[in-house]
Specification:
With about 425 residues, the chain is α/β, with parallel strands linked by helices. Helix content is about 20%, strand content about 30%. The strands form 8 sheets. A 6-stranded mixed sheet has the order 7-4-6-5-9-8, with no helix packed on it. It has a 6-stranded mixed sheet with strand order 16-13-17-21-20-18, sandwiched between helices. Strands 22-25-24-26-28 form a 5-stranded mixed β-barrel. Helix 2 runs parallel beside helix 7 and helix 5 packs across helix 6. It is elongated, with a radius of gyration of 30 Å.
């Protein structure tokens, strides 16, 4: 891969170019291990899975009622002899012959010879006979074998993350263990002499570090094993030593701040000493200064210091890269069209992600309202918004009524 930061140090690449570089560069780096299904929540599948059995395994009843042969049904009503009963786990194994019906409960196997079920609320009984009204269709209230899952069918794919529904599906076909990726081991730093952890009074010029807590929370939602390695001072030698040490025991390293071109921004120089930078400027707003490279062979991600810029660059660039390293499938957040309810003139050339809330317009249209304070350091613009309005590089004016894509925060794990 060409080192874009060396050949074009002052020219940012587009978001699409950055994502293409990461897609071409990264493969899963984590080991494969086998775990019990009950411990697989949040883990990433390492293999495809086919169903060893069908679900349901046999035709069964969708309701409580009476199973019978549809051929016995007459247009008005039909009286049948109740030959026995069938419950889930207790099938009726004899053939249902002409003129017979079997009392059946939801989930019970359809007895041999029967093909239709009349709901109990639609019939009447007297002694050992049941009267079934006409009009029932052949196979009504009968769930067919394999209706949910066919035996041998592909039911889950390598790279999928297992949630409760996926685990339930695997349990339903008798899967007890699954091969999954080990959690990605990620080292997390902040940088800056002005930063303090959230305890005790602040000195003059100091601020509490919010970036690391935000990063660690977002990483936890991805199932990544993140190690909080604290705050790095603004010294290139210390930064280089700590980054090198972290890379020896982790699959990737991430830090925030120190990515720009100021005299106290030492991270890029430290990474160059230890490895290489693939790019360090992306044409997005907020978040242009983002460094991506390697410490030796270990991927490195350097995020902006401003909290909102850090969040946006993590969500749009680093999150999909980490998922790829962790063995997950290619991922893109859900977008849906909304209507802008504001007017804004803007410079072209950058893809912008505006923090917005949604409200109802006429005809149930969703209107996007831009957060009043949009600076890259205004963390409340994320906490008090519902998602990101995505504005393309070539759009110079946003007018009320314009349709734009909106990314809700829940689809990004926020």
């Amino acid at each position: 891969m060409a080192n874009r930061s060396e050949s074009h140090p002052d020219k940012p690449i587009s978001l699409a170019q950055a994502l293409a570089i990461l897609s071409d560069s990264y493969e899963p780096v984590t080991d494969i291990e086998t775990v019990a299904l009950g411990h697989a929540h949040g883990r990433i599948l390492a293999t495809d899975i086919a169903a060893p059995i069908a679900v349901p395994a046999a035709d069964n009843s969708a309701v409580d009622g009476y199973a019978f042969r549809h051929a016995d049904l007459v247009p008005a009503q039909t009286k049948l002899r109740i030959a026995g009963s069938a419950a889930a786990g207790h099938p009726y194994l004899q053939d249902v012959t002409a003129g017979e019906a079997v009392r059946i409960f939801t989930g019970a196997i359809i007895p041999p010879g029967a093909d239709t079920v009349a709901p109990q609320e639609d019939v009447s009984t007297a002694g050992t006979t049941v009267t079934i009204p006409g009009g029932l269709k052949l196979g009504e209230n009968r769930r067919l074998a394999g209706e949910d899952i066919a035996k041998g069918s592909h039911i889950r794919s390598m790279g999928e993350r297992l949630g409760p529904a996926e685990i339930g599906l695997l349990a339903s076909v008798g899967v007890a263990e699954v091969a999954v990726r080990a959690p990605l081991r990620l080292a997390v730093f902040s940088t800056g002499d002005e930063l303090r952890d959230g305890a005790g009074p602040l000195g003059v010029g100091q601020i509490y570090d919010s970036n690391r807590p935000v990063l660690l929370a977002m990483l936890k939602g991805l199932g990544i094993a993140a190690t909080d390695l604290g705050i790095l001072p603004d010294r290139q030698d210390v930064i280089a030593n700590r980054l090198a040490e972290a890379a020896r025991s982790h699959d990737a390293v991430i830090c925030s701040a120190g990515m720009s071109v100021g005299d106290e921004d030492h991270v890029k120089a430290a990474v160059r000493l230890l490895g290489a930078l693939d790019f360090w400027s992306v044409a997005i707003k907020p978040g242009r200064p983002i460094a991506v490279g390697r410490i030796g062979a270990v991927p490195f991600f350097g995020l902006p210091g401003n909290p909102v810029a850090m969040i946006v660059t993590f969500l749009t660039i680093v999150r999909p890269a980490l998922l790829r390293l962790a063995g997950a499938q290619a991922w893109s957040p859900r977008r849906f069209p909304v209507t802008a309810d504001f007017h804004l003139m803007r410079r072209t050339g950058k893809r912008e992600f505006m923090r917005c809330t949604l409200h109802d317009g006429e005809g149930h249209a969703l209107l996007a309202r831009r957060f009043a304070r949009g600076g890259s350091g205004v963390l409340s613009s994320v906490a008090d918004s519902e998602g990101l309005l995505e504005v393309g590089e070539d759009i110079a004016e946003i007018a009320p009524g314009m349709t734009l894509p909106f990314i809700p925060f829940p689809s990004l794990g926020l």
